[in-house]
Amino acid sequence: xKTLQGIRACVFDAYGTLFDFASAAARCPGVxxxxxxxxxxxxxxxxxxxxxxxxxxxxxADFWQVTADALDFALESLGLADPGLRDQLLxxxxxxxxxxxxxxxxxxxxxxxxxxxxxxxxxxxxxxxAIEASGLQGLFDKVLSVEAVRVFKTHPKVxxxxxxELGLRAEQISFQSSNGWDAYAASAFGMRVVxxxxxxxxxxxxxxxxxxxxxxxxxxxxxxxxVAA
Length: 229
What we know:
With 229 residues, the chain is α/β, with parallel strands linked by helices. The chain has two domains: 9-20 and 97-223, 3-Layer(aba) Sandwich (Rossmann fold); 23-94, Putative phosphatase, domain 2 (DNA polymerase, domain 1). Helix content is 41%, strand content 12%. It is built from eight helices and six strands, in the order βαααααβαβαβαββ. A six-stranded parallel sheet has the order 3-2-1-4-5-6, sandwiched between helices. Helix 2 crosses helix 3. The radius of gyration is 17 Å and the shape is globular. The two termini are 22 Å apart. The model has no long low-confidence stretch (mean pLDDT 97).
């Protein structure tokens, strides 16, 4: 297995990579069991569609509004529109659970000398809430939100923002995302990429390609060579 050399920082997408977006509907007693999976999928799909469409239109709204708009669409589509249920789900989204291996993986990377960071569509307050709810405080050198550039992934400005904030070149960063479109875009931008393919997605037909594909983040540390000087 060929390890990634010259890496100084590990940068992570948040939703679906560090935090389980499906845990909101899974923990909400008001969602019927037989509709939990459908709600999570439709909510997520519409959330992403709205980020891409707003970026193309040049009509930015922050990720919290996009998330709420997507939830409204999903609830109405599934016949679940109810203000109380909506409020419950949005509260649970603010406190998403981290995947089980996340905390230990971050500790290993930091012990090895790598910088760690989040690069996310999420707003600063959303990311802070998720980090606190998951007990991940102190495990990131930087928490970077697209609100600084006011355009969503996969716009190159987002990846460039990470380079500026970390003071590194693209090839010195290992970028981890569970989203194929994000992983391929970061690769096309010039970052080294480990696609955390939690959901068994097929390869994308897009520019770029991940350097490695893993099933969860516990498999990441062995893929990295020594921290670059």
